[in-house]
Amino acid sequence: MARAPLLQLSNIALTFGGAPLFEGLDLVVQPGDRVALVGRNGSGKSTLMKVMAALVEPDSGARVVPPGVSVGYMEQEPEMAGFETLGDFAASGLAEGEEYRVAVVAEGLKFDPETRVATASGGERRRAALAKLLAEAPELMLLDEPTNHLDIEAIRWLEDELRDTRAAFVLISHDRAFLRALTRATLWIDRGQVRRQEQGFEAFEAWRDKIWDEEDEARHKLDRKIKAEARWAVEGISARRKRNMGRVRALGDLRAERAAMIRRQGTADMALEAGQKSGKRVIEAEGVCKTFDGREIVRDFSLQIARGDRIAFVGPNGVGKTTLLKMLTGEIAPDSGRVKLGTNLQIAVFDQARGGLKPELSLWENLTGDPSMGVSGKADQVMVRGQPRHVVSYLKDFLFSDAQARAPVRSLSGGEKARLLLARIMARESNLLVLDEPTNDLDVETLDLLQEVLGDYDGTVLLVSHDRDFIDRVATMTVAMEGDGRAVVYAGGWSDYQAQRGERSAQSAVSSDKGKAARDKPAETAPRGGLTFTERHRLDELPALIERFEAEIGKLGELLSDAELYAREPVKFRKASEALAQRERALRAAEDEWLELEQKAAAD
Length: 604
Prior knowledge:
With 604 residues, the protein is α/β, with parallel strands linked by helices. Among the domains are: 219-260; 273-497, Rossmann fold, CATH 3.40.50; 509-603, Helix Hairpins. The chain contains 20 helices and 22 strands.
């Protein structure tokens, strides 16, 4: 017997700013769905998700959720008034005795539930909102950019959590690797229309391009038909006038059909132009050490950066990636060692906090009010790589409308703010580009274009990112900051780093515990004979999953070791006992699965 949908939207219409965002929209989410929600920045992804969560009321249409079905939404900017700590907020929707769920999730997401709301950063608040959703475990999860402000380790933990959940989810993300790993269906918002394909994000781009090709062909055929009918209207004979007027009316209908075809929004017209060439050696760091508040950021770190290098810096949040960048560019000094900058450097910086933008000023003023561009905030023109351009014309290159040019920056979405900051940077000539988390909030098409632009850039790029796919496509070298002052240089991007790190781990593995050494060894060094692609991928994932189960079992065991817990909080004791039993079963199943796949891989 078919199960009822978890959520259904019927004939939804919604208008923002005088223009319809959606008209006649129908959408169904079924039990077990794992859906990628994709579309250009500004296409309405977040708005649609808020309609699904009943946080935005449509102008017309119906939202139906069956009785008893729980729908959870991860808020981008959660309202925490009235809560003292992040943990209080994250546990606010849980039943009595289930607060331990927050502690388990907080460990994976790497935030402290005791952090006071008043002092929490934006990233910590977002992680608390994500923890709240995961701890509540609704039947349908709506996740809007959950990986923003997460480091790669936390992203992979979240991947495992979502892969193992029995809940359905709809997911907005710019992280291709995350989307590929998790989704089985795709919802694509394009010019107010929502299309669905029963394949995950892996198949999205081929599907999108096929639809666009079909649209182009249909538009071309219609243009030819209109041209032929228009020629007849001019040259046709006047006899049998009644019949001729019918063809004239038909021509009008064809023209109306053509006008109704909404032209696709193009990609941003991004370009980077290197100024004068820097010296061949851009930066030389030798024996660099830095400590903050008693914590060692880097120890005895050396690196030579040559002109044209693309270097990615990876590591957990708070490990010191931005600090190391600032040392390498001369913004802050090391405690010991030396950093020598090359000659003729022109540095442009993309700040992860978007600190270069003034939210109360308009887009126009943010572009022309930058003293480094040599013009006042009231000018009509902006210097773009040495040539004057009208402000509105240049903003249109980055997909901003005339109306947006005069709007305050605070009205922009996260992706639009990122595009505006890119517009500022790309107006300048530079030969050393520093990009600190540039991929947050950008849509897939803009990320593709940014990658191409960086590939053609004749300068040097220093990049901090948690987007594994983007690092793979851009970086020629990866600096992994592994904590306790260790910063190790690897050739290539993220996948190359993982492979080389695995080889180092394998070389230093202790042979006395062969089973554990083989299991903990990164997947790139594991035998591969006889395994399908899916089995290889699963074998890669299982060691981290096993470690997570072991950590959660330890935490629950510690909680249950309180001899008075049963008498004091019997509900909490029962819930924790059930969770412990479930995780022990999951651990045994994961270990059995790992052993079976490892044996199959070794058999060939």
